[in-house]
Structure formats: C-alpha cells, structure tokens
Amino acid sequence: METIICIGIELFFLISSIIMFIVFIINGFDFYLYLMPLAIALTAIITLIVSIKDKNRKYN
Fold first, then answer.
1. Mean pLDDT, residues 25-35
2. Per-residue confidence (pLDDT) for residue 1, from 0 to 100
C-alpha cells in the first residue's frame, strides 16, 4: 500500500513540474529558472522507476 502512495506522490511531482515548466516557457522567464522544474522532473522520474522496481520485487 505504501508503494502505491509513493508512486502517486512521484507522479504528482512529475506532472506538476511539467506544468510549471510549460508556464515558465509561456511567461518568458529566464533560462536558469527552467532548470528547476527540469531537475524536479528528473528526480521524480528516477524515484518513480526505483519505486516501480521495488514494488515488483516485493510481490515476487
């Protein structure tokens, strides 16, 4: 159950960082400000992959 909650939280961070990246592009912010949502998205993708592998390992 806790891995499902972790996966949900990581998906939330991934989706929100993509939305934040799009908003920053539309509003024309600095390039360095684009790096923040990209870093959050990269971290969310990595932890999501690890959580999915961990979930599959627990059930086997």
1. 86
2. 56
- Residue 17: closest CA among 45, 40, 49, 48: 40
Distances (CA, A) of 28 to 21, 24, 36: 11, 6, 15
For residues 2-6, average pLDDT: 76
Terminal C-alpha separation, the chain: 15
* Radius of gyration, alpha carbons of the chain: 14
